[in-house]
Amino acid sequence: MVVRILAGSNEVDSLSTESRTPVVQLSPFSSDGHDGLLIKIQPPREPANRNLHHVPCDLVLSIDVSGSMDSPAPVPSNPGEKQEDSGLSVLDLVKHAARTIMETLGPEDRLGIVTFTSRTKVLQPLTPMTAENKVETIMKIECMRPYDMTNLWHGIRDGLSLFKEGEDGQGSAGRVPALLVLTDGMPNHMCPPQGYIPKLRAMEPLPATIHTFGFGYSLRSGLLKSIAEIGGGNYSFIPDAGMIGTVFVHAVANLQSTFANNAKLRLTYPSYLKLEETTGEAVGKQEPVEVEGDVPEPLTSLTILLSNIQYGQSRDIHLKYGNSLESITAAAETNSKSLPGITAVLEYQHFTPTIYQTVAHQSVLALSLPLFPALDPAEIAYHVSRAALIAFLSTLSPLNAEEEHEPLKHLPRSLPDRLETLAASLPALNPKFSTSHAGCRSLLTDLIGSSSTLTSDDETLGSEKRTHPKTWTGQIALALLHTDYYHRWGVHYLPSLAGAHARQACNSFKDAGPLRYGADSPLFVRCRDRLDAVFDALPAPNPSRVPVPVVPVVSSMRVYNNVGNGCFAGGMMVALAGGRGEVRVGRLRRGMEVATPRGARRVVAVLRMPVRRVEMCLVGSADGKTGLLVTPWHPVSLSSGGVWEFPKDVALRLVRYTGSVYSVLLERDEDADAHAILVGGMWGVTMGHGLTQAGERGDVRVHQALVRLPRKTGGVALGGALTRDPETGLVNGFSRAEGPGKKVTRRLARRAKAAAVAPRPVDKLRPVVRCPTIKYNRRTRLGRGFTLAELKAAGIPKLYAPTIGISVDARRQNLSEEALAANVERLKEYKARLIVFPRKSNKPKKTDTPKDQQTAETTQSIRGSFGLVQPIAAGLSEIKKSDLPKNVEGGAYKQLRKARSDARYVGVREKRVRDKAEAENAKK
């Protein structure tokens, strides 16, 4: 269905921005050497219902939960100050932002959540945000944990699929659909071979706009911007924890104040005008096409995609002529067949399949005297300058063959001159405009930094003298004129700024230019202020990045030479390549790139070995607050290229560790320095140097043994212990850990034990206790033993309890009357069903079950089931003295020691014999 609304030049006065119909205004202009056409699309200032809380939305959060999301999110600090580590990870703050979005939604809104790592998981389909559903959503948000790699494509694909699976079968009718993609790095798993943009274009029309958010400085920002452009959304750069709140607040406020979606502007005009867009390269930008059919003169059609339009915020498009104004006027006057003109058709939707159209027309003959009132020269200067700034920034991230923006790796030396030329060409920087127009002043602030950098000899003529660009303090100038700034944050910030100006959408409180967008929209301001208040009012997230606890060992403990149980404790943090942060060594997976003294190297395999109370060394700073927990004989170095030392020699203290230890195998490299990783703030060697034979400096371990170990996903091998060469005593492989087959063996052993001890239970009776932490206190489990108070209340002596199958723990104390009563009842029930037969039927003890309680039915049942005879016969039998073995020379114990020694040193002795024989042969 298409609803057509005429908005020609004769009907301008009848259209009001307070109605539901947007105004399309075509304004030709010629000012200060700039000729062109300015198209202004003015939506209603606010909804007809001025009490509207917000426009209903369908939001899907596609959240990156790869291992790097566990990296710290430090609080921003001033230059020279030490950054604080609050213990919060990037994922902690993302979860906090997700809760903020959820809290501002009502029952008319729906929220879906998808997480992606090496694979995706739909935590929640699109669900109405009622009070009950919000409670469940919070639990799902809090359960997100970081894993391994980044499968961005599946995160986008599965997020879009949720819009096609609406509960009511009507999709997102009546609600603003939007997919918010949150990631902190570069995709490294299952990337589409043909590229992301061609893959997304094959899925058009997309069911929702796509908005991308990049955290930190290790981003593929060009890809995120391209995805946002083809998805009709915005790309936002979040450098640190201080920007998360403001970016998400503005992103959601823009969605909640949307007037129309799927908007596009179709222009039809005489071909001699040669209209051109002025904002540079962008994904999805369409080329002009010739109009086919029976037309009185050659006509050209140009389609401009606008996506979402917000209440109260105009969309202004600057087009320039390909010919001079004089030649255009002459061509129009010579055409007597028809009245040449420019026709603009705005198509848009109100979140339903119905397409609305607003039509406007402008005569070409009236270019010098437009029917619409002329725009303010300062307004023209602002929009011409804004388009020129976007075009300049787009040259810094040109599109490659896969239509992905590829930021320049090296800035040209002529960039300061280009910046100065740009500033001189922007009419908005003329003092007569920059001092009177807020928009022009905002562009001046972002580019140069302050109006004090401009001085005017004659403001009426605009002949300003500018200082050298090196002295400019604007964010754009800082990002481009300082190489270290550009490579750290400028390469990500500039595409985000260009996108905000192109969409005319406010994306943060930080930049003066985008901050003015939406300022005239009461609905946007209300939504933004409400979101900002909710973000600040929510309780701070609980830090998930806590240091690994270590237990000190008494100094008198015997030295334990544990030479082979892996390398690093599972909680140690490993530095990723390219400054992408850190990840726990236990979360490393095959294909991830880590930092080495020789640059980035790829992980080939990870060996995990479970251990229990093994001796490890804490190596690190003298204060003991930071350091590395490593096995005693695993070489470490405090600096790249420094001296390698054994942790046993430089340890601050020894600790007992229970958990898993990990060893890492990197890709083959002949350079030995390429086989070390930065873990716990110092360098630690990885498994082998790619060699399989021992040499003078080679690693004698044969790491091909990893192939024979059971594997999990991501290249993680499960090992049990190290094996050694019987001749040399050196490590030569790994034994297998207990696999699935061992479970069957243990189950059969339990069955055999149950049959052997019947009718007694297999295990002792244990109490029901609750986990000690606040998070898991609602869960119950079996404790070590009953307290003395519980035994006393049940009338069972503490020394007698272990003899009848009851475990006792004298250390545990009862902190809950409810738990005490429950365990006392458990003891009484056990005691009531317990039958204790006397050892001697003619001499029963006081604690034995009386004969009158040994019912015939119970006794007969036990005898029939297990074939027991009462009383139970003795388990020992006597043998004759003559059947004993005869005396052994030297005694039995001496023979045992000799046999054990022979078995232990057989390999060494054989080698000694061979070496002696070879030496004698050499003498001959």
UniProtKB/TrEMBL annotation:
One Pfam family matching this protein: Vint
Gene Ontology MF term list: RNA binding; structural constituent of ribosome
Gene3D superfamilies: 1.20.5.110, von Willebrand factor, type A domain (3.40.50.410)
Residues annotated as domain VWFA: 58-252
Entry keyword annotation includes Ribosomal protein: yes
One Gene Ontology cellular component: cytosolic large ribosomal subunit
Highest taxon in the source lineage: Eukaryota
Entry keyword set: Ribonucleoprotein, Ribosomal protein
Location of the region described as Disordered in the Swiss-Prot/TrEMBL record: 838-862, 904-924
Biased amino acid composition, Polar residues: 852-862
Gene Ontology BP annotations: translation
Keyword Ribosomal protein tagged: yes
Family of this protein: Belongs to the eukaryotic ribosomal protein eL13 family.
Entry-linked HAMAP family: Ribosomal_eL13
Entry-linked PANTHER family: 60S RIBOSOMAL PROTEIN L13, LARGE RIBOSOMAL SUBUNIT PROTEIN EL13
This protein's name: 60S ribosomal protein L13
Species of the source: Chaetomidium leptoderma
